[in-house]
Amino acid sequence: PAQLQARGVVRSYGATPALRGVTLDVAEGEIVAVTGPSGCGKSTLLHCLAGILRPDAGEIGYRGQRIDTWSEAARSRLRRTEFGVLFQFGQLVAELTAAENVALPLLLAGTGRRAARTAALSWLDRLGVADLADTRPGEMSGGQQQRCATARALVTEPRVLFADEPTGALDTLTGEQVLGHLVRVAREQRTTVVLVTHDARVAGYADREIAMRDGTVDHSGLGLVGGPR
Ligand code: ADP
Ligand code: ADP
User: Fold this and answer.
1) Which DSSP letter does residue 29 get?
2) Rounded Cα–Cα distance for residues 165 and 107 (Å)
3) Contact 11, 44 (CB under 8 A)
4) Ligand 2 center to residue 37 CA distance, Å?
5) For the chain, is the Cβ count within 10 Å smaller at the N or the C terminus?
6) Closest ligand to Cα 41
7) Interface pTM (ipTM) of the complex?
8) How confident is the model over 3-18, as pLDDT tens digits?
9) How many CB atoms lie within 10 A of CB 95?
10) Alpha-carbon span 158 to 77, nearest angstrom
11) Ligand 1 centroid vs 118 CA: distance in angstroms?
12) Which atom from ligand 1 is nearest to the alpha carbon of 198?
């Protein structure tokens, strides 16, 4: 059974159509890469699946429940408890150390200081950046910041991680290292990952590629990039 479902999802920004009827399933523990050129609707699809944006038409399902009709408060609660999100620029808090940044979601969820710090240190270690625990983002490289941001996105042990161009700001080698860590840890945790990228190489890390063009998904199974014309 699918963990995430989109059924005929349509979404526009004013007169600009972003999604023209997207239908797809993502299984629990699956790592999917949503690929396609800039402007084809990848981010909009991710925001709809994560309950951040409401579709204009169609349905979003999570573990058998239709969530697009839920209130903002209910969707926000779902995001806090079940989902993790990671963006292109990790958006770490500049004034806080790596350990404090990673502990933050746990503190906000009511975990005690000591337990939150212990968990944060353990997640930094899993991402290979334990030595940066007491360092602030301004003194880190881009790759180090994204590893810390990945630790922060996973510290609450979400069932689904939504990642929007998580390596988009990094050079190729650093991007692949960050992605390698992210995918390894996600598999260890059996975390479902929806990875949005315009970089076709990144899709090589996923179990399956969902190729988009012009607000729709290609279901031919052939892929759009490099496929037959
Ligand atoms: P991608 O992630 O593939 O680059 P997006 O989902 O960001 O695609 O965008 C899909 C389309 O919607 C594009 O034409 C984009 O310009 C437009 N769009 C996205 N966000 C907004 C917005 N906030 N306001 C207006 N148009 C938007
Ligand atoms: P991405 O790299 O994820 O495709 P963009 O860089 O296209 O995102 O967009 C960054 C932000 O600007 C997003 O919040 C998006 O919704 C918004 N945006 C994108 N296209 C437009 C647009 N044509 N008009 C207004 N806002 C837009």
Assistant:
1) T
2) 27
3) yes
4) 13
5) C
6) 1
7) 0.73
8) 999 999 999 999 999 9
9) 10
10) 12
11) 39
12) 3
